[in-house]
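Q: What does the assembled structure look like for these inputs?
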Amino acid sequence: MKLKTLIISFILLLTMGLLSSSAQSVDPVASAKLDTTLVLIGDHVTLQIDVELFDSTFVQFPVYTDTITKDVEILRDLPFDTIRENNKTVIRKQYILTSFDSGSYYINPIAITLRTKESEAQTIYTNPLFLSVQTIQIDSTENRIADIKLPLETPLTINEFISEYLPYLLIMITVGILAFLLIWLIRKTKKQPTEPIVEIPKEEAHVIALRELDALNAKKMWQEGMIKPFYSELSDIIRRYLEHRYEIPALESSTSEIAFITKSLAILDKEIQHKLMEFLETADLVKFAKFEPLASEHLKFMEQSYSFVLKTKIEIIDKEGTNNDATQNKEENNTN
Amino acid sequence: MNSTVDIRELNERIKLESAFTEIITLEMNKVIIGQKKLVESLLIGLLSDGHILLEGVPGLAKTLAISTLAQTIDAGFNRIQFTPDLLPADIVGTMIYSQKKELFEVKKGPIFTNFILADEINRAPAKVQSALLEAMQEKQVTIGDTTHKLPIPFLVLATQNPIEQEGTYPLPEAQMDRFMLKAVINYPLIEEEKLIMRQNLTKDFPFANKVVSAAEIVKAREVLKEVYLDEKIERYIVDIVFATRFPEQYKLSELKEMIAYGGSPRASISLAKAAKAYAFIKRRGYVIPEDVRAVCHDVLRHRIGITYQAEAENITSVDIIDQILNTIEVP
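A:
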């Protein structure tokens, strides 16, 4: 009996010893699981990798960049977690995954490297995983294509208007004022026309000319030997008359320019044009070349000047068809 | 009246003496088609002893016009192409050591001639321009310690083009003033251009003959001095030049802001000289307002400085001259 008890005790001790020695030499185990294997496109899935260890072994998880397998992306890489249960240690690593393509994905066994204190490396693998990604089913019979909805219209309050539009309003007013000032400044300083401005007096041109001719006649200049001043004044009277009568810049033009203007505008008939040029050219000779015409020529040019003014003055035709010069017309108006 | 007789005599004399200008014009017209104004300007400069600056875009026969004028006159002619690396000594000359004589000898530069064509004057730096302009003003050149007189007549005809301003040295205002005339050449007319093209495609390009001697030019210059300039014309010239300085005194207040500086007394002198030369070319013994107006642009365009305001408004010195001529009463 004692022997029997001793033998049973030995067998139990051996079994326990074997069990305990087998427990001491248990291999590390790696497992992987997903919190769900069926997700909608874009949904998040948590991948959990557990490595069970029975001794102090270093665990090295694979390093992923952005995908764990084709089209399954890693959104977040969560930190390690170490859980100690009884005499084993569980190293847990979690990843948040997603996929933007529908389909079934096979995640290969994940290789985990273990390194003992003696620097012996060992690679263990997790179980493979399947992930199914589904798209959203659209019922085309119910969900028809619709136009974009317009924004809701709400009444605009004064405060909203001021806070929203006042700065723009102020900018517009400022820009408007600046534009107005700029246009005003440009107009004020804009390029002046190079064409001479002819000032037209209120009085009729021939009235002034005849009055000046009378005054010149009364001075009796050529009779007193003042030939050059006589021709200067006479030519000035005629030029001034041309300027007032035809609105041409005769005072600022030379003889040849006057000839060109009167010819190109065809404002004088041939004979009058010829006589005018004869006079102006002679006057130029007297004024600039010390030329002295004969006394008869002084008279001739004086008479020609009167004749020129009278022949070219403005004539006003009244209602009855009779011709009246402007002076007569003016006098009649005054009498009435 | 003696004075009347004098003018008539002078008129007759000038008609005789100025005949050669028509011959020069005819000879030049054989080579230069159109550009009547340019030919007139060249003759004015030649007769009134004034240097000329020609401005125009490339290809308008500026250089050809000047060389043709020189061809028609039996006188010396040199062309200097102004470049950025040109030195004053390249123009006026320098002292060179003679090993044989064991002393420094003067080597005269191309400036020692009657007609100088300073081609593209604004391509050379200021020191070279100064060397030339000093010679233009003084009519003499100093090399080493000796001053050498330049031959008579001595005329500088310079060219520049208004484009391609990069890498150029624009003439300063003071140096521009040394040029009596600044003539601007424009494009020829359609018919003229057809003739130019035809002429350049023929086998024998026309050649201007020598028709006048340097001595005749000098003599003509003496006669030119006798051309009568009446007091009224003098007043007209002075009024025009004064209007460039004090426009507000001539009812041209709007030009006050446009003009930076007006014409100098040299402008009045040049205007009078050029007007006389123009009257001479027109074979007259006296100056009339037309003569002044005809040369006014060439004499004054480079002597009126315009402000930034004028530049901003695209107003040129020519616009200012036009406005002055259109405002000042002709005597």
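The radius of gyration of chain B is 21 Å.
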